């Protein structure tokens, strides 16, 4: 785990400091409250990094969460506290989240949570999952996702757009050639 690693220095320390600065305790707290509401578990919803990590690190709560959103998303939840079993739970959660519609850009890596490397990305993933939850009849988290709004145009409407000169093409209204003196001598 992260306790056995040497402290970072140089560029690695600067990069880690920048990653850690993105973490928002308010968003983490809001996310934990949503998880507690959906799973029915009584958990500490404090958003500080230590509590957030301690609550989610074994992956059991995450697996229960996706199983609440869609039953059977994670077939077997490992109840062991052994490192590889916990990481297996986290991987199962990530696979289920991807199947529920969370994009790969919003997913986190297992070590981001297990070794506390990037808890901000964990919050981002859970927020994205919260936006997908209403699609499965569960209470959501965060803003509602936009819905597809396709429009149909007639051929006449499409052709009318071809006759309009866009402003990017420029305009010559009000332009004259006065003041152009290329090739002329300068009169003193």
TrEMBL record:
Residues 25-134 form the Calponin-homology (CH) domain. GO terms for cellular component: actin cytoskeleton. Gene3D superfamilies: Calponin-like domain (1.10.418.10). Pfam families: Calponin, CH. One of its GO terms (biological process) is actin filament organization. PROSITE patterns: CALPONIN_1, CALPONIN_2, CH. It comes from the Eukaryota. InterPro entries: Calponin-like (IPR050606), Calponin_repeat (IPR000557), CH_dom (IPR001715), CH_dom_sf (IPR036872), SM22_calponin (IPR003096). One of its GO terms (molecular function) is actin filament binding. Belongs to the calponin family. PANTHER family: CALPONIN, TRANSGELIN. This is Transgelin. It comes from Amphibalanus amphitrite.
């Amino acid at each position: 785990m992260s306790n056995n690693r040497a402290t970072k220095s140089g560029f690695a320390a600067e990069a880690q400091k920048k990653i850690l600065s993105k973490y928002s305790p308010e968003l983490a707290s809001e996310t934990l409250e949503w998880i507690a509401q959906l799973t029915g578990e009584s958990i500490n919803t404090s958003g500080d990094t230590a509590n957030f990590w301690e609550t989610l690190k074994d992956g059991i709560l995450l697996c229960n969460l996706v199983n609440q959103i869609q039953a059977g998303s994670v077939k077997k939840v490992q109840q062991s506290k052994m490192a590889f079993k916990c990481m297996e739970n986290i991987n199962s959660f990530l696979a289920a989240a991807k199947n529920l519609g969370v994009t790969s850009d919003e997913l986190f890596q297992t070590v981001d949570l297990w070794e506390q490397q990037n808890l901000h990305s964990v919050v981002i993933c859970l927020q994205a999952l919260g936006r997908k939850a209403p699609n499965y009849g569960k209470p959501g988290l965060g803003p509602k996702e936009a819905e597809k709004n396709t429009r149909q145009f007639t051929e006449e409407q499409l052709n009318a757009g071809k006759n309009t000169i866009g402003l990017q093409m420029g305009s010559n209204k009000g332009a004259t050639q006065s003041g152009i003196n290329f090739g002329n001598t300068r009169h003193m």
